[in-house]
Amino acid sequence: MGATEKGTTTGTQRDTGTGAGRSGAGKDADRRIGRRSLLIGGAAAVVGSAVLARDELGRLWWRLPGVEKPRVEGAVDFRGARWVAASTANFRWADRPDDYAIDRVVVHVTQGSFASAVKVFQDPGHRAAAHYIVGRDGRVTQMIRELDVAFHAGNREYNERSVGIEHEGFVDRASSFTDAMYASSARLTAGICARYGIPVDRAHIIGHVEVPGADHTDPGPHWDWDRYLRLVRAARGAGTPV
């Protein structure tokens, strides 16, 4: 991202697909459900099996108006993370990886403090947020569950297929990226890769700058990719808890 932006916190790119709201009552959500239902029904007819339709509809039932998918309040996907909920306007309720396969981790830099990133992710007017924020001291805060689609990449397809991790600091300051941050973020990414079978390489662990159509530059020239991937592989090999 540009050095004048607050990472995904103030960037103008965002997923503007469905509206916020757990029920999915917006017109776009209804149309999506209708299209998928038709596709599911057609596929079931072609193969001559009602099992396919039942399985697919079973994953979609909670998107119907008035239905809420059960959630455990305060649950986190990374052991040791602190839960602070983002505004529901900044992500889309989902059931990944059942409805969208996850095959990417996107690395961001906040272009501001840890506290400012949390604040804007809680702002419904911001319309963007990442799943995690990693501080200079290595603390991890999760604000969106991995099963949900965070508006962090500025590309709808990449939002649906990825987990976004913000890092406290500035792209033009090498001092932003501390040993504690690298180590903690590497453990976090190793766990994500283990959960979803994501290869630990630069094709699957990418910077925001590499997202198609993105106008951001993060994590910038001072982010040490070689070091980061070594740490992720080491954490993965050590059997990081997932």
UniProtKB/TrEMBL annotation:
Broad enzyme group: hydrolase
Region feature Disordered, mapped onto this chain: 1-29
Source lineage: Bacteria, Bacillati, Actinomycetota, Actinomycetes, Kitasatosporales
Domain N-acetylmuramoyl-L-alanine amidase per the UniProt entry, residue ranges: 89-220
Reactions catalysed, as given in the entry: Hydrolyzes the link between N-acetylmuramoyl residues and L-amino acid residues in certain cell-wall glycopeptides
Pfam families: Amidase_2
Native organism: Streptomyces galbus
Classification via CDD domains: PGRP
InterPro entries: Amidase/PGRP_sf, Amidase_domain, NAMLAA_amidase_2
Low complexity bias locations: 1-17
Keywords: Cell wall biogenesis/degradation, Hydrolase
Protein's recorded name: N-acetylmuramoyl-L-alanine amidase
Coiled-coil intervals, chain numbering: none
The protein's Enzyme Commission number: 3.5.1.28
